[in-house]
Amino acid sequence: MAIFSWFYSLFKPKVGLQSGMAKSGEEKKKMRVVVIGGGVGGSIVAYSLQSVADVVLIDQKEYYDIPWASLRSMVEPSFAERSVINHIDYLPKVQIIASSATNITDREVTTEDGQKVAYDYVVIATGHLESAPKTKAERLNEYKADFEKIKSVNTVLIVGGGPTGVELAGEISFVFPDKKLILVHRGPRLLEYIGSKASQMAMNWLTAKKVDVILDQSINLNHLSGGVVQTSSGETIKADCHFVCTGKPIGSSWLNKSILQNSLNIHGKLVVDQNLRIRGHKNIFAVGDITDIKEIKQGYVAQKHAHVTAKNLKLLMNGESESKMATYKPGWEMVIVSLGRKEGVAQFPLITIGGYIPGKIKSEDLFVGRTRKQLGLNPYLDEK
């Protein structure tokens, strides 16, 4: 279909990002680029620069866990074998420090384990705060534990009606159609970050799958006792297990006493210019959710940030004029929310659709194969 080709072109991996820099008579010593955060944006920046720079990746974990695949991994643990990728598998030329960054000066980055890493350039891609185990094996075991928990219970409570909560409800209802699902959302409608038409489509799909959706109510899980909890309106809910799918804070608190403390806006996001450099700092970039760019924060957007940043870093390291730097401008906003394995709801600039087409675009493989291919990996197997 034409819409498939059009949509795919928006996410098609950029070519040429691994090309080498121009050389003079002697090969120059490579500059050091420190990438902080090994998620959606950071992984692509590190991968794109590893052949042309001395790249150091600082990440609290040893792997990249493709975020839009995590919910399916909870109900199909084998899916995570492709979506949880050790950094070393796609970054053979990169020094990987499995620790969190705690400070940045104008010369070096300090990590939680006490290392001080000097840099020529820095890219900050710390996204949102999340608790995650250090190793891939531990992460895979977490997914297996989630699966066993869901499999063994009768009633599952999902707290939060954003994309995470809605997609988790869809995954569980597809794999375990006999489970009783209760989704509680504090807002007046699901998926409030997009239009009401898409929101209603998701609501209709969930209710058709007999998911009990409760809107305009919140839950204090600190008062959960014996699987029973009360909503803000006093309604009693009994569930055998629950999953919290509410928003997470921006991963910028570590910058509050750094040289970038004045570069954070009131929401804790880094203020960047059109080249994705942090304003006031010519050699520090930011990509992904931590930036203050006014756009819906999504994975494909972070990937676009990463491609622009990698291009600009190559240009600067090659000694070319700043006037040639690529600029980033938010494009048309597009959102696809998976509903199980075969359906979904999609909001494009001029149309909102539900059903099979958005399911075909995203839900079948959740872009995992394409994401692996962007990192130089076999789309389906662990080996390259």
TrEMBL record:
UniProt domain FAD/NAD(P)-binding: residue ranges: 31-306
Membrane-spanning segments: none
GO cellular component: cytoplasm
SUPFAM superfamilies: FAD/NAD(P)-binding domain
Recorded GO MF terms: electron-transferring-flavoprotein dehydrogenase activity; flavin adenine dinucleotide binding
Signal peptide (residue range): none
InterPro entries membership: FAD/NAD-bd_sf, FAD/NAD-binding_dom
PANTHER family associated with the record: APOPTOSIS-INDUCING FACTOR 1, FAD_NAD(P)-BINDING DOMAIN-CONTAINING PROTEIN
Biological role stated in the UniProt entry: Putative FAD-dependent oxidoreductase.
Name the record gives this protein: FAD/NAD(P)-binding domain-containing protein
Taxonomic lineage: Eukaryota, Viridiplantae, Streptophyta, Embryophyta, Tracheophyta
